[in-house]
């Protein structure tokens, strides 16, 4: 997709940001700065905490949720991430109140190049490295650097592969804590999460490991009858820490498995995680599954939990671990 570049040329000439661009006028570093983080194989240096942050969509809510958890919502000038629900009280409402910058998203439901540069950002967060792919109509890292803006992608999403774990959520908390000069806040969140998860792990340590299916009802991710069943994702780590195992972890090398009705019917499913993504009645979605597969132990026991953002990469994984463990191993 190609975009006209006239407005961009004007932006490049007039905008001075606060990143590390050689073309923008440099100001003395703020107290405690400069700070440098490593991201996607590059050292990224900040002369001061960002004040004009833009958050790209990418089908994620992790980046904006991390900013809100760190108390940095006032640094956001344009956010395009939202699930409309959260497992943390008040989180969805706080995200909904953030400015969107009046941006019209492109056909990939993300921020096109011209609109991005028009926001005059000093820091841009993308969900994956493709968020800075110029061939897809996005502003590149070089475009952003030219106006004094830095760019960030979560480490496992830099194109190097590997399945995310809760440690990746902690890494982003620490990275953004360092970038914004709130490392103490980030460390408190990390330590609280570790404490809560450790308590769950100790409680379920010697218990049987039920087989769990994670599904996003209504989301079409492929050609299979059931194309939104979780395969390789951070949820495998969270389910394991909660004392279970993903029944379909080995069914596909990617995030989601494309499964037939027959494959689900033949599987042992002891419990179900319904992921609430813009779902008006997630419990009804569970009931529909139980009607289709009454032979499951999960169906016979009506054993499911509804989760939204905590089951994904982000700052709230301890909530998912606690709630899955309560489902699989209820406290007597």
Molecular structure report:
- The protein is 34% helix and 14% strand.
- It has 332 residues and is α/β, with parallel strands linked by helices.
- α7 runs parallel beside α12 (317-328).
- The protein is globular and about 65 Å long.
- Residues 1-24 have low confidence and may be disordered.
Largest sheet, order of strands side by side?
4-3-5-6
Shape: globular
Mean pLDDT across the residues is 91
Helix content: 25-40%
Largest sheet entry: 4 strands, parallel
Q: Which H/E pattern describes the elements?
A: HEEEHEHHEHEHHEEHEEHEHHEH
Number of DSSP strand runs:
12
Using brief descriptors, characterize the structure shown.
four-stranded parallel sheet; 14% strand; 332 residues; globular; alpha/beta; disordered N terminus
Outline of the structure:
By secondary structure, this protein is α/β, with parallel strands linked by helices. It has helices at residues 6-14, 62-69, 91-96, 113-118, 141-146, 166-179, 183-204, 234-241, 261-266, 282-292, 297-301, 317-328; strands spanning 35-39, 42-46, 53-55, 76-79, 123-125, 150-152, 211-215, 226-230, 245-246, 256-259, 271-275, 304-307. The chain is built from twelve helices and twelve strands.
Secondary structure elements and their pairing?
Layout: H1 6-14, E1 35-39, E2 42-46, E3 53-55, H2 62-69, E4 76-79, H3 91-96, H4 113-118, E5 123-125, H5 141-146, E6 150-152, H6 166-179, H7 183-204, E7 211-215, E8 226-230, H8 234-241, E9 245-246, E10 256-259, H9 261-266, E11 271-275, H10 282-292, H11 297-301, E12 304-307, H12 317-328
Parallel strand pairs: 3-4, 3-5, 5-6, 7-9, 7-11, 11-12
Antiparallel strand pairs: 1-2, 8-10
Helix pairs in contact: 6-7, 7-12
